[in-house]
């Protein structure tokens, strides 16, 4: 059976920098202060005609570099391409952050020495390795909306539908339709070359 | 010196507590970090670190961990240890201050080196509690080493400067490849010990700084960014690469140091415990120093 390949896409022509996605994410997963799994960034800020915003989180890369460098092998990539990690295995060394092109992994400080705690990042609302929808899973990783057949909360909340998430064919079909209606000429989705090697 | 060290640590600690607002990684800088990743004009440290850590670091550490003791095991079996009488006259070479400084560094290394290996082979140990505990010990025992590294550097600096004896020492590899007891040219420290001195001191300081970078992670030191022209994330990547590469050298020479003092020269470890070096041992292994001591009437 061929599994779908889940991808994120943020349409920079539509993103209005409302921050709704990151607020929805933080609320839905009850993230601690100082942790933002998703962040809206503005590129070429103040340059007329070139300024645009986009929403960034873990892109769930093909050949995820975080998975390659982890010394305790706490990452695993699901059949549908979602990159998850085991927080109970993670030692908070920070290597995944150095490898990540997007600055996605974050580390809450914990303990008396303020050492880096277990890494936290976007799960594409797919929880972690624990029992699906268990209390412990929700506590460590946040909601598991994928298991319930729901769209990840950031994309569900996006008011302009700039942020899309789904299997790559459906996402690509929407991108094609939008690009042709704009008649501006096709361009590769931002950061897709790094995340998905343009596959 | 210590004052500056404390100031440096305090700056790092303060900077690391300033959260996301001024973050050099998840704040405004994140845009440049994303756009610059792997670009032609960048240093490409992200992909470089990923490649090295993914394919090489753990294997090289495994090679060092097996290869160096393996070579010494063969040396012990084929050539064997050097045994000196130890009942002869002794000379008081290391005072209490020397020994305390050395012992603090020794204890630090005995904890830091094995816990470092546990982190490198973290997947073998299954991650979680145990590896996390080792990671914390790895950082914690850096503190005593940080305190003694400068005093240690200063107290042995004069004896650790290389001279002509060392060239001859290296030519015969310190005489360790023969069973003969022929006097070997060396001062208080032979060329091998000097090499260890420089790796332990300069390598050790490099390890402390690169390790501190990775521990404190998110801080801003304007001067450092200006001098290196690197972003914080690139400096972290460089720190991780340097920490591993320097680790190869420190670990290899640490194992050598332990082998020499505990096995290759029987009873040599006693000199740093009691402070007394044994005459016959000095006469053969440190003949230049022996001549000097003899002239001064110390033996």
Largest sheet of chain B: 2 strands, antiparallel
| Most extensive interface, chain pair and sizes | A-B, 42 and 43 residues
Q: Which sequence of strands runs across the widest sheet of chain A?
A: 1-8
> How many extended strands of chain B?
2
Any idea of the CATH class of chain A?
Alpha Beta
Return the CATH topology of chain A. Answer: Alpha-Beta Plaits
Low-confidence region ranges of chain A: none
Tell me the layout of helices and strands.
The complex is a heterodimer of chains A (199) and B (299).
Chain A: E1 6-10, H1 20-28, E2 39-43, E3 52-56, H2 65-69, E4 75-77, E5 83-85, H3 95-99, E6 109-110, E7 115-116, H4 135-141, H5 153-157, E8 163-167, H6 168-182, H7 192-196
Antiparallel strand pairs in A: 1-8, 2-3, 4-5, 6-7
Chain B: H1 2-17, H2 29-36, H3 45-55, H4 57-78, E1 90-92, H5 96-120, H6 128-140, H7 142-155, H8 164-171, H9 191-216, H10 222-228, H11 232-264, H12 270-274, E2 276-278, H13 279-285, H14 287-295
Antiparallel strand pairs in B: 1-2
Helix pairs in contact in B: 3-11, 4-11, 5-6, 5-7, 7-9, 9-11, 13-14
Descriptive overview:
The complex is a heterodimer of chains A (199) and B (299). Chain A has helices spanning 20-28, 65-69, 95-99, 135-141, 153-157, 168-182, 192-196; strands at residues 6-10, 39-43, 52-56, 75-77, 83-85, 109-110, 115-116, 163-167. Chain A has 199 residues and is of the alpha+beta class. In chain A, the strands form four sheets. Chain A has a two-stranded antiparallel sheet. The model of chain A has no long low-confidence stretch (mean pLDDT 92). With 299 residues, chain B is mostly helical. Chain B has a two-stranded antiparallel sheet. In chain B, helix 3 runs parallel beside helix 11, helix 4 (57-78) runs parallel beside helix 11 and helix 5 runs antiparallel to helix 6. In chain B, 68% of the residues lie in helices and 2% in strands. Chain B is elongated, with a radius of gyration of 22 Å. Chain B has one domain (2-94, 163-295): Fumarate Reductase Cytochrome B subunit. The model of chain B has no long low-confidence stretch (mean pLDDT 92). The chains are: A alpha+beta (199), B mainly alpha (299). The A-B interface holds A 33-34, 36, 39, 41-43, 56, 65, 68-74, 86, 88-95, 97-103, 106-107, 109, 111, 113-116, 191, 194 and B 13, 16-17, 19-20, 25-26, 30-31, 33-35, 37-38, 46-47, 49-50, 53-54, 58, 119-123, 125-128, 131-132, 135-136, 139-140, 214-215, 217, 233, 236-237, 240.
